[in-house]
Amino acid sequence: MHHFHYQSGELYCENVPVRKIAAKVGTPFYLYSAGTLTHHYRVFNAAFAEFPHIVCFAVKANANLSILRLFARLGAGADIVSGGELYRALAAGVDPGKIVYSGVGKKPEEIKAALKANILLFNLESSQELEEINRIAGRLKLKARVALRINPDIDAQTHPYISTGLKKNKFGIDIEQALDDYCRARDLPHLDVVGVACHIGSQITQVSPFVDALERLKELIDRLRALDIQIRYLDLGGGLGIQYHDEAPPHPDEYGQQLLERLKGLKCTLILEPGRVLVGNAGILVTKVLYTKPGGAKHFIIVDAGMNDLARPSLYGSYHGLWPVVEGAHPQVKASIVGPICESGDFLAKDRLMPAFAPGEMVAVMSAGAYGFSMSSNYNARPRVPEILVQDQDFYVIRKRETYRQLIWGESIPDFLKS
Ligand code: LLP
To answer: Which of 32, 71, 149, 253 is the most exposed place for a label (fewest CB within 10 A)?
Structure first.
């Protein structure tokens, strides 16, 4: 469910015509609906109501401060993977007691900052990382609460670039080796071993891989408890998929119910790290058609947003719906929507049936709220686009369009090049 809909032939986000926002901020821009974000969070959270749990929003999906703040006010925590994400989460007012830190390559200064902020949990991904966090915590005279991120060797049946729970992936600790590492962690003086974690992949459209992962972790928890390692947190990661096109992902209620059935009687707090499912369909990218090249070997529609603004189609061949901002009598054509970047991989849609958009018209690239802006770059020296948040009849610029001046910020020309 989302709040993008047509009224008298015009696309609205909640009660604001998208055209009105474009007139104010120009194109391209990202547009998010606060009502949809709130609804998605509430539905997801309610699906786990019967069990003690914390929903830690995966900041990487959309790191805008206002989005983080919106979720924090609804009670969410944050799943972070870098010092920068920690900084953002704290700046947005996320409770450090609800922050979990995952990632295979945490640097000493990042670990230090997270320890000082007293975050809830570090999800450790290798035996060497155990030693490193123990050492840093010792120097700060602190104890780090840790979970080991287990690689449960589960096929999440998703795109290979976003599958993370297979033995061959770089993530987590091999489940066979986990007991040894837990015993070592227990004996390290500055670690408080409190959790088991996993994250098996993203855009997963079935419940069964999650259930399989949970079963494996439950077995592990039993064995750990037998060794007197008291597990208080079970972090199942994120990964629940959304509908971009014709996928039929499970509703969060279904996902919640199937997991909770298997959690009965297990004394611990469940942690979930949803990203995409909360923000994906709550955001769109609005772009304008600059030119068209019909009639050749291929029909190209050239727009003002490119792969630097939305990388997913180029990177994963992802499908994003294309809606006209103003409905018209568009015939359907087989075409590609491409951006201004100097790469043939710069497309938002490839060889697809779509309305024959004409120059000057605006197109809404749907389901762009997750891994859209957060993966955008300045490639081809393109300033990053603004982000707008709509609430009911009002809209707010929650990130300004970058300026050329910002593009060269921090650069300097050494003296030998000046003369
Ligand atoms: N927790 C961890 C440890 C993760 O690595 C991720 C995503 C999540 C949670 C959130 O997963 P989600 O609920 O959003 O599926 N750029 C790709 C997706 C990469 C996901 C990486 N990890 C895309 O655009 O599809």
So the answer is: 253
